[in-house]
Design a protein that fits this description.
Elements (H helix, E strand, L loop, with lengths): L7 H6 L7 H15 L4 H5 L1 E4 L2 E4 L12 H16 L12 E5 L5 H9 L4 E6 L2 H13 L6 E5 L11 E6 L14 H6 L2 H4 L7 H13 E10 L5 H7 L4 E7 L5 E7 L3 H5 L1
Parallel strand pairs: 3-4, 3-6, 4-5, 6-7
Antiparallel strand pairs: 1-2, 7-9, 8-9
C-alpha cells in the first residue's frame, strides 16, 4: 500500500497487479529498513490514533492504542466534574486543558475533537516535536483550537490555570532498557521514553507543577506503566480520589488524581 500509494481495497481488487522495476526497488528498500528495526510508522510516516491519521516522524513518540485510555479516562472524569460543579460555583463553562509533552499532538487533537468548546495548551520541550504536532493540527483543521508552547513541562503557566492536565510522560527506567523493544530503544526519541533510573524522574517533577497549575477540584491524568504505579501513587500523596485504570491486558496504564476543591484547600 505504501509503495503503490493505494488503499487495501485496491490491492484486493487487483490481484494481477505487478510491481514495476522502480516500485520493486522502493519496496525492497522499505523491507530493508523494517528488517533493521525501523518502526513501520517511521517508514510510512503515518499512525492512526483515536480515528485520526497522524504524521509520525522520528522526532516524536509513535502514538499507541494504550494511550487512548487517557482520552477515555478524560471523558469519564469530565462527566464527574460536571456532576460536581456545585462545588465550584465560579467554574466557567469552557474547560481549559493542558497536554504536557504533546509529542505528535495525538492527545491534544483527540481532546479537541471530544471537547469542542475546550481551550487546549500543548507543551513540549522539543521544537521538532512541536512542529509535527502543529502539522497534525493543521491536517485535522484543529490548529485554531490548540496553543503550542515550547517549554519544560508546565513552566510559564500561572497557578490555578487548568481544569485538566493530561500527559503521556516518559516513564521507562533506564535500568529497564534491555527489556524494551529494539524498535523503541533504538529509534524512538530517548527523552520521550526514558526518565531516570526508575522511570519516575519526570513524573516526580510534573506532579507538583500540575498541583500548582490546576484549579481547585481539577484533575491530573497521566499514562504510566505497571512497574511504577505504586511509586506514582506515593508521589500523589495529598491529592484526592487517586485512581488507576488498567489497559486491556490488566496492566495499570493511567493514573488520575484530583486536586482538593477550594473548600478543602482553605481548611
Amino acid at each position: 500500500m505504501f509503495t503503490l500509494s493505494c488503499d487495501r481495497a485496491y490491492l484486493y481488487a487487483h490481484p494481477e497487479r505487478e510491481l514495476s522495476a522502480d516500485e520493486q526497488t522502493r519496496y525492497n528498500a522499505v523491507i530493508a529498513e523494517r528488517s533493521r528495526g525501523v518502526p513501520a510508522q517511521y517508514i510510512t510516516g503515518h499512525q492512526e490514533f483515536w480515528g485520526m491519521d497522524l504524521i509520525a516522524t522520528p522526532a516524536v513518540l509513535i502514538p499507541r492504542p494504550e494511550t487512548e485510555h487517557v482520552i477515555e479516562t478524560m471523558l469519564e472524569l469530565s462527566d464527574i466534574k460536571s456532576a460536581g460543579a456545585q462545588e465550584l460555583p465560579s467554574h466557567p463553562p469552557t474547560l481549559r486543558i493542558a497536554d504536557v509533552g504533546t509529542g505528535s499532538g495525538c492527545i491534544a487533537l483527540a481532546l479537541a475533537k471530544e471537547f469542542p468548546q475546550a481551550e487546549i495548551d500543548a507543551t513540549d520541550i522539543s521544537p521538532a516535536a512541536l512542529e509535527v504536532a502543529r502539522i497534525n493540527a493543521v491536517r485535522h483543521q484543529l490548529e485554531a483550537r490548540i496553543g503550542f508552547l515550547e517549554t519544560d513541562l508546565l513552566t510559564g503557566f500561572a497557578n490555578s490555570s487548568f481544569d485538566f492536565i493530561v500527559s503521556n510522560p516518559p516513564y521507562v527506567g533506564e535500568s529497564e532498557e534491555e527489556t524494551v523493544q529494539l524498535e523503541v530503544r533504538k529509534f524512538e526519541p530517548r527523552s520521550a521514553v526514558f526518565a531516570g533510573d526508575k522511570g519516575t524522574e519526570v513524573i516526580a517533577r510534573l506532579i507538583p507543577q500540575a498541583y500548582a497549575a490546576l484549579k481547585p477540584g481539577g484533575w491530573l491524568v497521566m499514562e504510566i506503566s505497571g512497574t511504577i504505579s505504586e511509586e506514582v501513587k506515593r508521589l500523589l500523596a495529598g491529592w484526592k480520589e487517586v485512581r488507576t485504570v488498567n489497559d486491556l491486558q490488566g496492566i495499570p496504564r493511567v493514573v488520575a488524581a484530583r486536586k482538593p476543591p477550594r473548600s478543602v484547600v482553605e481548611m
